[in-house]
């Protein structure tokens, strides 16, 4: 994929369920959704792996871009599409394009809908801001600046532009003499008397450079308000600068904060300072601790804690919702007591006493708190509070988790062995009647007691109940057969198998709870053709034809089954909660990963044998720095599992286990 340049064009679509697929017969790539509906047929040589917004594709040496419905947004006519140049972080929704990379002066600019903004006549093109584009022809000594409609605004002599760390109200131009000069977005110099001295201005104050690269600030009258002693200025909170001092070899020694009146807000020290909403995160280098300080420099949280970002697994809970803002929070953990709390970016502290973990899910959701065991030996209890600290559920639960409804949690009391949904309005009415629960990728809940399965929809309404040998998410072939037979216009949400049914028969359960019997069929026809609607005139795309699946082979004693093939899946001794506790107690964070702040999810695949032993252990997703090896060690030291059953017999099953590495 190294020859395909990908980019983000800002159409905020929820495309997290999309994924690429490859036609094994042709090796070509396409896109499908989680129900294996084809969004774009497998006709492309290369595609972007993660379909988050508009997607870059490549076919027969030509590049273009498609949207979430498979429609072309940028025509499949370009040899190269580039999202950014140099150190600029974004193209602000534009892309640089060319039909011939070997020829100079053939670059242009298109917007996210494929509309040509700048024609292909430039050697160099760039989006400075959403409202300002720049291009230069190789034979010209002037950079040409344009508005979003492609109208010329002004020209500046120079080679190319460079970003300004203090924001996009000013930018640098590298002149023909290779010197940098700062300009405002209207094309005038930041500091007219000496364009090379100017760095940045907001009209009230101006940052200048004097002498040996030392920077300072003057006001509109020319008075010095921050002395010329500093090597670096970065944006702080509104009206403030994060400023760095350096020694003679320009190595940064201390960092502090000034306001625009020249007052020191945070004294200079060996520290890192990060603007975070309405407060500062301050990391003390020499003691490896951090604190939170207000805009006037007052300590809200002393520098005694370790911070980590708040993480929400979209794999477990679905895509981002409008009220979910983990970026507005930071998790603080005391290194000695291990007690944890949340800090919001406005300085609000949410500190439940005795908490060893605080889980955030959204601003309209409660917080789930894991309390440290009082005797140090019992299992931790969980409780729920709102974002103001009010207790919604007392610390009486061994398990608590979020649901799509902010007013409902799922959990198990310490005095009960079974699981149930808990309404925060009437927790006393909760019924703990299920042995197991799981959440499908489509958001539906499968609740199980013995062989009775109940299905709940996204509104947590029970839509179906029945006695089955197994009930699970539909697999690819079941989705395909469901669509081909067309028994209903409803969506398929689950597949089930009942005792007495023949091999290959299954029940399809729809979103309203209806069930339909499907018999074993020989799949000889491919999925119905999928029309790729085009936003612009393009070459006609042919539909992918999938090869029919091979006939089922006779089962052998050594056959390895998938999870959806068995009626009783394998299980860690004690169930999912025990597995989570085993991982929490036994995971040893690799030192290299901890020192470099590496966090994330490692996935390991293994086979649960008929006797419960684990074999063929392999990491299928790694985050590096020893985390994969640690995951293998965790699996290798596990006790034997309860093996899977198929038709009443123990069988071998392939299992994939995600292990989360999170720094406290």
Please describe the structure with a list of short key phrases separated by commas or semicolons:
664 residues; 6-stranded antiparallel beta sheet; 5 helices; Fusion Protein Consisting Of Minor Coat Protein, Glycine Rich Linker, Tola, And A His Tag, Chain: A, Domain 2; mainly beta
Task: Please tell me about this protein's structure.
This protein is mainly beta. It has a domain at 560-661: Fusion Protein Consisting Of Minor Coat Protein, Glycine Rich Linker, Tola, And A His Tag, Chain: A, Domain 2, CATH 3.30.1150. Helices cover 6% and strands 43% of the residues. It has 5 helices and 52 strands. Strands 27-28-29-30-31-32-33 form a 7-stranded antiparallel beta sheet, with no helix packed on it. A 6-stranded antiparallel beta sheet has the order 34-35-36-37-38-39, with no helix packed on it. Strand 19 and strand 20 form a beta hairpin.
The CATH top-level class label of the domain at 560-661: Alpha Beta
Largest pleated sheet: 7 strands, antiparallel
* Overall CATH architecture of the domain at 560-661: 2-Layer Sandwich
How many strands in all? 52
Globular, elongated, flat, extended or rod-shaped: what is the shape?
globular
Q: Can you tell me the residue ranges where pLDDT is under 50 for at least 5 consecutive residues?
A: 1-16, 523-554
| Strand arrangement, major sheet | 27-28-29-30-31-32-33
| Proportion of residues in β-strands | 35-45%
Structural class: mainly beta
Number of helices in the DSSP assignment? 5
Q: Would you give the CATH topology of the domain at 560-661?
A: Fusion Protein Consisting Of Minor Coat Protein, Glycine Rich Linker, Tola, And A His Tag, Chain: A, Domain 2
Estimate the helix proportion, in percent.
Answer: under 10%
Specify Rg, calculated over alpha carbons.
30 Å
Rounded mean pLDDT is 85
Q: How far apart, in Å, are the first and last alpha carbons? A: 35 Å
